[in-house]
Design goal:
Keywords: Cell outer membrane, Membrane, Signal, Transmembrane, Transmembrane beta strand. It comes from Vibrio panuliri. Belongs to the OmpW/AlkL family. This is Outer membrane protein W. This protein has 215 residues and is mainly beta. It has a single domain, classed as Beta Barrel (Porin), CATH 2.40.160. The strands form two sheets. An eight-stranded antiparallel beta barrel has the order 1-4-5-8-9-11-12-15. Strands 2-14-13-10 form a four-stranded antiparallel beta sheet, with no helix packed on it. A hairpin with a 2-residue loop joins β13 and β14. It is elongated. The two termini are 38 Å apart.
Length: 215
């Protein structure tokens, strides 16, 4: 009798563990806070040696939607509400914030999940492609009248991420992840009456904490 009870308890535990699975055919949705932290560098502003643009960090609502192709492989799309960044300059006479831009960085990833399908904890790594489009570029604050008519080209580059899901129950889980995207753009702007272009590498780290649901 005791052996039968023990076996029943083991089978119950195993069946409960299997319910935690990220398994083939599952859709996985995550939503939470995503912070874009640029690792920026740029060419000289208007050809002036030692000058460059800066880009500050911003946090928005991040959203990922994934589909498990197998128990270990998924495809996933990263989306977000528009990120807004201040553009700064160390050019003499226009030091400080000179503009603001918005962008959206949709990113398509192919990911590999470690562990078994019935694991409660699922770390993963991924690689894919990022497309970033910029909009609502404008010059504000210092530099108005000197630096004007700012625009940034859209960017297409590689991306990578690592993350981990921890299942709370059959459907809900919590997630943390880190992303890296290769975002290189060309900034065009007027300095006085002269149109100037400068290469800008943004190359941000994206840190995300989220809740998730699978179905």
């Amino acid at each position: 009798m005791k052996k039968a009870i023990c076996c029943l308890a083991v089978l119950t535990a195993l069946s409960s563990a299997q319910a935690f699975a990220h398994k083939e055919g599952d859709f996985i949705v995550r939503a939470g806070a995503a912070m874009v932290s640029p690792n920026e560098s740029s060419g000289n502003i208007a050809g002036v040696p030692g000058t460059e643009f800066g880009v500050d960090s911003n946090t928005q609502l991040g959203l990922t939607i994934g589909y498990m192709l197998t128990d270990n492989i998924s495809v996933e799309l990263l989306a977000a509400t528009p990120f807004q960044h201040k553009i700064s300059s160390n050019l003499t006479g226009v030091d400080g914030d000179i503009g603001e831009i918005k962008h959206l960085p949709p990113t398509l990833m192919l990911q590999y999940y470690f562990g078994e399908a019935n694991s409660k904890l699922r770390p993963y790594v991924g690689a894919g492609l990022n497309y970033t489009f910029f909009f609502d570029e404008e010059v504000v604050g210092k530099g108005v009248g000197t630096v004007s008519n700012l625009s940034l080209d859209d960017s297409f580059g590689l991306a990578a991420n690592v993350g981990i899901d921890y299942m709370i129950n059959d459907n809900w889980f919590i997630n943390t992840s880190v992303w890296y995207a290769d975002i290189d753009t060309e900034a065009s702007y007027d300095v006085g009456a002269t149109r100037v272009t400068t290469d800008v590498d943004i190359d941000p780290w994206v840190f995300m904490i989220a809740g998730g649901y699978k179905f």
